[in-house]
Amino acid sequence: MDSHNRSEDRHKKIIKTAWTGLITRAISIAVSFLMVPLAINYLGKEQYGLWIAVSSLVAMFGFMDGGVGNAVINLVAHSKGEKNDDLAKIVSTSFFSLMGLAILSCLLFLAIFPFVSWGWLLGVQELKLSQELNLVVIIVGLFFFLNMFVTLIGKIQRGLQEGNLDNFWACIGTLLSLIFVYFAIQKDTGLIGFVAAFLGGSMFAYLLSNIHYLFFIRKDLMPRIGLIDGKIAKNLFKVGGMFFVLQIAATIQGQADNVIIANMLGAGEVSVYAICMKLFLMVPMVLGLLLTPLWPAYREAFTSGDTQWVKRIFLKSIRWSLFVSIPSAIILFLIGAKFIEIWVGQDSVPSSNLLMGCSIWLIFMCLGNALAVFLNGLQLVRIQIIVATTSGFMNIMLSVWLIPMMGVSGAVFGSVISYFIFTLIPYFIFIRKMMANNDFSLKVQIIQQ
Predict the structure, then answer these.
(1) What element of type H or E holds 133?
(2) From the centroid of its chain, how far is CA 9?
(3) What is the largest distance, in Å, between two alpha-carbon atoms of the chain?
């Protein structure tokens, strides 16, 4: 297949994945709009905030897969670009590696669990709520570690530019979560039942996805112990090691605020922050789904030598990110308070400061998505580790400093300031210098070494 045909094939797969992702996100947004008032009315502001804080806390354990999950996308895309026969070995090696990591991480989590004061960490003082909190943390943790390797198929599909299949099952999972939660509320199962139902829907869909893909579509990729390859495992953990550090910094940047707010202001305030964020982050989430198919496409294009295509599509993604994010931020800032009042009630209406901070954060996240997809596709992880680590650390420092002065809005302004200074500015300086270099391909290879 020549360069032109490769480019055409790449575009078709990107569009297919992007459109299915858009449909999936539209359904996810609709479900979210139903789920939030349903959850708040049933759980109450305090328990809902607690659920959000626990989810954020456990999400910060995302680094425990060693970065292997994200490395799989690049290895699969690289294998596809070189047209070698390593795919079955990559799948088997990745599957059993992630299974082993999930088991070890889960055992470590259970060993540490009794020694952590979860109630103090999340600002819970009531004894009964503290007891429920411990169960919620265990349930969320166990689902998280199981999720580490059952979602591998989705990463393989994205590496093969078959993200439309992953999008389909994600959509099924979202719908199942809503159905399971509805029945849990009807049966009055309380916070524990609500959490188990919410997580169980997506987990059931992922299990069906594995069965569908490995038993019916790609039987040749069925994980087998005999196909585990030491060389691939070494490469997997080498690439994964970089993503591992990046994930630690990224989860701190993205999830720490909810935990800090819970600790400093109480779980009830997390609800106000989380609901406002949920509304504003729907835009970068949708845009992220449209941009994500570019990750394996960048990798495959770079591997096959089509660097001009990489540069052209990257610049276009930046323009579209600004075109979508700026008008969306302005509109949501103007209508956000009224919309949230109608959506979930007067108690959760955000302040104008919080709305302003979330508007700026929306724009930054859209730009950040385009930059991260580009850098991940070219496997330029070291620069991301440096800026994400610095930005994440400064986010915590600024949030802890600003929250006592500004209340809950201090958390988002801590994120905005740290992300702008320590992430966006360094990224644009780095990429501009790299793009200005005529020997773009060689420069990327040198940086990766």
Answers:
(1) helix 127-150
(2) 27
(3) 67
Cα atoms in the Cβ-side hemisphere of radius 13 Å centred on 128:
4
Rounded Cα distance, 220 and 207, in Å: 18
For the stretch 63-88, pLDDT in tens is: 455 556 667 777 777 776 666 567 88
Name 195's Cβ contacts closer than 8 Å, sequence gap at least 6.
Answer: 51, 136, 139, 140
Give CA–CA dist 304/308, Å, rounded.
11
- Among candidate residues 211, 224, 272, 209, the one with its CA nearest the CA of residue 40: 272
Q: What is the pLDDT of residues 368-424, one digit of tens each?
A: 989 988 888 887 877 888 888 888 889 889 999 999 999 999 999 999 999 999 989
Q: Determine how many CB atoms are found less than 10 A away from the CB of residue 226.
A: 6
Domain boundaries defined on the chain: 13-448
Give the span between the Cα atoms of 146 and 149, in whole angstroms: 6
**Whether the Cβ atoms of residue 293 and residue 167 lie closer than 8 Å to each other:** no
Task: Report CA-CA distances (Å) from 242 to 130, 157, 217, 380.
Answer: 37, 22, 32, 9
Predicted TM-score (pTM) of the model is 0.66
∠ CA 426-430-434, rounded to 5°: 170
Q: What is the DSSP string of 261-291?
A: HHHHH-HHHHHHHHHHHHHHTHHHHHHHHHH
Tokens of 75: 């290895």
What does the pLDDT read at residue 442?
46
